[in-house]
Write a structure and sequence with these properties.
One of its GO terms (cellular component) is cytoplasm. The protein has 230 residues and is α+β, with helices and mostly antiparallel strands. The chain contains five helices and 13 strands.
Amino acid sequence: MYDPENRLTDAYDPEVGTLPNEDGGRDEENVVKTGTTTVGLSTENGVIIATDRRASLGGRFVSNKQVQKVEQIHPTAAMTLVGSVGGAQSFIRSLRAEADLYEVRRDEPLSIHALATLAGNFARGGPYFAINPIVGGVDEEGSHVYSVDPAGGVLEDDYTVTGSGTMVATGTIEGQYDPEMSLSEARDLAIRAVNAAAERDTGSGNGVVLAEITDEGVEIDAFDDYESAE
């Protein structure tokens, strides 16, 4: 529970991701960080997003083993949930509503760059605590993967990883990623990256959620184990 007087975060509140220091007045040493692993890979034919399924209490207890950390927010885009559960869910609802409103008003969907920029603006100026999502999508300009940091920074790359499993997952992807790889190959690589992180990161685990994004839409599937996802 957030205490406005002490400006600390209760270590036993449910979370699905890392807790960066967003408030300069917060004592970072007393903020317990938990983990997750989210991966986004861009290919010529679309985008693959993969995450683990674990939510924990203060990084000490697994509070939920079936969290879906990827949500569709746009006809051809999805975003990961990273951070406190409430903040991440509120962030996704707000972003989805704005994207829908734009499409109704303009009779066309937001570009993925505009969507990621909007997400960064929300992160920078909104009340969303401890978020570090990945936005992935496809538009007329091709496939895109963006990371959005808690301060609102938006960076596009061929692939990106967020969460406490970042180092292990990134190490798995490095040297194996190819922008010309097929969606099937990207899917396999994303699964391997999340699985590798789960082997070493206590905040990640309990299967994988996969989102396959093409110009035809978003398909999201959840698997209890990595073998069945392959």
